[in-house]
Amino acid sequence: MEPTPTAQYVPGDWLPIVIQFAAALGFVVFAMVVTHLIGPKRQSKVKNASWECGIESKGDARTPISIKYFLIAILFVLFDVEIIFLYPWAVNFRAMGLDGFIWMLLFMALLLIGFYYVIRKGVLKWE
User: Can you give the residue range of the structural domain that contains 118?
Assistant: First the structure.
C-alpha cells in the first residue's frame, strides 16, 4: 500500500490571489484619481450648505443626545451579531451532535446572562 501524498503549497500558489487584490486596489485608486481630476469643481454658498432630507438645518449640530440612545444602538448591534452565530448552528444542528448542542447551550446561557444584566442595569428603560 502506498502512502498518500500530502499537499505542498508553494508561494506561487498565492500568485492569482495577489494579482486579484492588486487589480482591485489598482482599480479603486484609478477610479478615485480619475473622478477627482475630471469631476466638476464649482463651489457656491447654496452647494456648500448643509441639508438633510430637503429641510434646511437650524441650530447647532452639536446638541447633547442622551447616552441611552447610544447604549441601545450598541446593544442592538451586539445582540444582532450574536444572533448571526445561531444560523450556522441551526443549519448544521444534526452534524454537530450532542457536543455542538452543549456548546450552543453554553453560548445561549452567556447571551441570556448578558441580556439579564442589561435589564437589571435599566439600560432599556426609556424615560
Answer: 65-127
CA distances from 4 to 1, 9, 82 (A): 9, 16, 41
23-57 pLDDT per residue, tens: 999 999 999 999 999 988 888 887 777 766 766 66
Task: Report the CATH number at residue 85.
Answer: 1.20.58.1610
pLDDT tens for residues 89-103? 888 888 888 998 999
In a domain, residue 49? The reply is: no
pTM of structure: 0.46
Q: Which of 108, 74, 75, 71 is nearest to 89 (CA)?
A: 108
